Amino acid sequence: MLRTGIVGLPNVGKSTLFNALTATRGAESANYPFSTTGVNVGVVNVPDARLEPLARIAKTNKIVPATIEFVDIAGLARGASKGEGLGNQFLHHVRETEVIIHVVRCFEDENVVHVEETIDPKRDIETLNIELILADYASVEKRRERTSKQIKIGDKSAKAELLLLDKLQAAFDDGKPARLAGLDDDEKALAYHLFLLTIKPMIYVANVAEANLTGPEGDLVRQVREHAEGEGADSVVISAQLEADLIDLETEERRQYMESLGVTETGIGKLIRGAYHTLGLISYFTAGEKEARAWTIHKGAKAPEAAGAIHSDLERGFIRAEVVAYDDLIAAGSNAAAKEKGKTRLEGKEYVVRDGDVILFRFNV
Known about the structure:
It is built from 14 helices and 12 strands. It is an alpha/beta fold and 365 residues long.
């Protein structure tokens, strides 16, 4: 399951956002630094409007969406890379995630203290990113000592690693994260074993007040947006407090309230899709009388690998995949009609699964 870490400085709204994402009050949300001293973990459904129509065709009442695991990580402060505050704990939990959601405070509220006393998204982004870079810099320096020793004893593979370390260190010296170091595919594969924090993809969340959710984009949000664009990263504007308040409303009340604000979709859906997009993930479906289910795979995965998302036996004994595109199935109205119209096809081991494919795997073990 995809593991996503929610990070940021203290009191930027991380736990409030986590509560909204998980539709619970499980994470403490308090007006003082380090109110989150450990981690809160929640599994979140990936919104997908295609599942209900698919369930109707399959004549099942059970829908199983894809899921993402969100981790609310303790707030970071200056000096975290050296163990200040909850630094060591913070860095450990970030290292265990696959994608980082960086929540940036873009709201004014005199009742909610800011560790730096003023609201400055650009400064806050730099504070967190620098701490992550410094932690990676220390890791690279430590690795360099080991690699240099390997070179002295004639380890040829160590030379390639030393070149990688030089490249990473040059990026860090320029204040750039590892993901912007210009690594090629081979270097990225080599860097994987360094467990770097700044090589992880990041999504920036501008956390605004409810009143600023619609209308012209303010300067605070613009700072976040411009930084994200400079990195080639996704950014989402969310009012975490509004999202948390919405979970207490019934479905119709929620729709009406959002409509009164001029909001057609919650930021939660945008954020979850952003995580999918950032990691290059897609969904395919299986549907039968038992259930209609979404499965998560990486874009470019071939049919046997997609089968393995269900069970390793399906990948090991893969024979063929019976595939129909979601839109074609919905237009036909049934599996039988889709087959009659020639929309269903048999695909082999080299077939690259597409987002929205509805698949029945044939296998033998």
